[in-house]
Amino acid sequence: MKKKAVVLLSGGLDSSTTLFWAKKQGYDCFALVFDYGQRHKKEVRHAVKIAKLIKVPYRILKIALHWEGSSLLNKKMKVPVSRSLKEISTGIPSTYVPGRNIIFLSFAISYAEAIGAGVVLIGANAVDFSGYPDCRPAFYRAFQKVVEEGTKKKRIKILTPLIHKTKAQIVRLAKQLNVPIDLTWSCYQGGKYPCGVCDSCKLRAKGIRESS
Amino acid sequence: MKKKAVVLLSGGLDSSTTLFWAKKQGYDCFALVFDYGQRHKKEVRHAVKIAKLIKVPYRILKIALHWEGSSLLNKKMKVPVSRSLKEISTGIPSTYVPGRNIIFLSFAISYAEAIGAGVVLIGANAVDFSGYPDCRPAFYRAFQKVVEEGTKKKRIKILTPLIHKTKAQIVRLAKQLNVPIDLTWSCYQGGKYPCGVCDSCKLRAKGIRESS
Fold it and tell me: Among the four residues A155, B114, B179, B195, which has the most C-beta atoms within 10 Å?
């Protein structure tokens, strides 16, 4: 019997690549998608498209992160745009949602324990990233310890296969795995087409440019 | 200016005592109440009554822990009743909700970071408890490390003032603090009156009995 894995899927390039990678490794994947009050629902729709395409069961969890303070949640705030790649690499931007990955991982661990999955995968990346503290290896090591101390089975492993990859390496991996890159959605804004100027669009463009 | 604190409030004896304790310590308290698909809504109503009584602002977070597997969520399963206190003290019962306190704490940390609170309080107890892994000191120490690694400010402290107390000591503290014990709700079942036979009722009765 295949080993079950819970995969956090946002519909972006990184999480989609992680899902395809997990499937390639032979895991029986269960995708978890969050509708958490982000500025637009486009991400969620793309996540569903990706899960359906690869025939992975998915659940959409609606959680209201009521509190404002992040430009990714609060439509009255502006998403930072046109920052240089150097600017992106320093400091924590206003798109940071307090403790978001802590919350996502918590649900993933709970779900994994409920369905008997031994693995939770998240497409976090600490190379070409926006400086969010909950994307770094030390955070995942600390969370692994929480799992060991705070769950019944203690053995759920958190895997972050992309954490040390550059965006270019992620794009190359995505191509190898036949991830439908055009079907993934990374842009922080919810327009008809990606804006091209937010941090996420810039990092993605850099990856695609450098991958070829 | 008073230091802000987020307090996880379930409406039970332990969390209510924790809230009163935090207020006595001089914290400007913000209560977080979860409506997470538990068998009954009675807990939530009691939490609101407690928060209103002590004039603490509260937020109710609705999170659907869709997955079944715990008798605290799944009405088709039976809550274990009439177990002896010795039985209660061994093993993890079916009322265990996978990773529940991990999820609750994650939201509390996120909320604390959003409102600039330096402290998160949870009424966990590892003496007269039902054996849940996410009630033990080692779990909270591990979570503290997650906060330091995964948040922007890194300084939110998790406090568990009841963790080493017996139920009798908690009841005595509750009395000292003028907690309206009759207004708190600990029973796992949602009847008009507490059932008296579930683990939670038994532990509470033991505490009240031994406190006088």
Answer: B179
